[in-house]
Each structure stands twice: as C-alpha cells, then as structure tokens.
User: Fold Arc family DNA binding domain-containing protein from Chryseobacterium daecheongense.
Amino acid sequence: MKSEKAQNSSESTAKGKKSFVIRIDESTYKLLEKWANDEFRSVNGQIEYLLHQSLINSGRKKNE
Assistant:
C-alpha cells in the first residue's frame, strides 16, 4: 500500500502539477478566499490564476 505522500506525489505528477506548502498570514488568506469566492474559484485555484497572470504580464510566460 502506498504512503499518502507517495500517492499525492504520483497524483500531482499525473496532472502535471507540483504540490508545495505556502505560508501566508491570516488576513491575506481571508482576502484571497473572498476574491476566490467572488470569481467562483478555490483559494488554490485563485493563487494559481494570479501566478499565471503575473508570469504572463512580466513576459516570463507566453499567453496561451
């Protein structure tokens, strides 16, 4: 039986995504949570979206 960590690792690899821990203060999290809810996203999805847009705006990633 796979450990939970090994299982999560293989799942993220299968989806082409990498998991990692992020530490942010509570007030920032609450603001992100409200923003995510306003746009019908999870907090994780909102962070992904913001990072993606920042990479495009900075010219580090091509707009897909």
